[in-house]
Amino acid sequence: MENAETFDGQLNDREFASVLDRPLSLASLSWLSVGWVAIAIVAFLMRVVNFSALPLSFNEASLASNALSIVQGGTIPAAAGQAPFPTALTALALFLFGSSDGIVRIVPLLAGLGSIALIWWLGRWIGRGPAFATAALVAISPTFVQASRNASDGGLLIFSSLLTLAAGLTWLERNSGGAAAFFGIGAALLVMSDPLGWIAPDRRDRAAASCRHTNCIIAVARPHPTRRNRHDYSGFNQPLHPPIRLLRFLS
Description:
The chain is 60% helix and 0% strand. It is mostly helical. Residues 1-7 and 200-251 have low confidence and may be disordered.
């Protein structure tokens, strides 16, 4: 009966102690965790600072015009159907938050930040160190930063590629229905984000399979032997593990 209420109706101090009142030991935090937090902060700041200071470019204005036409119940040019996903998401953002230059660019901004999170998740297969280095490169790369700050198809193409890759590897590892659903969603979004999503290498051209379409992603996402997986993936002529076959398909 030690845990029972005392005579004054108060619970034991040990029982009543809040989580916020407990001491936090900095020794429990790893340098890698601190580094991931720093990457997230740097990536956020580099994409948000002066986010809507510059006016929309011609391509951005064209995308915004098509999205606004959808919101108002109008029609869009047939050429916009080549990449319907960015136009549809931009229309949804304009419908929910109103029309402004920043709202037009919010979709690629979120896609760029989401790509950092997906690279962190891919660390389960490529290793924590390579994932950290890749995320750091993506966070400060002028190309990736520009793709996240401009209302274009590039940011969504990168995000949908990483989503398909991460969900597919999770599906193969856990045989999860949810991961399979996300893999299907990512594959569908991949081909709707940009016409480049339709490109697939020739099956006979195995040497070029790792050099086409999201080559920077495939270069870092190729699994290597770990404590959980010590198979040899060094040669293309070796029997391919399911994650490798998935990477070769997505490459």
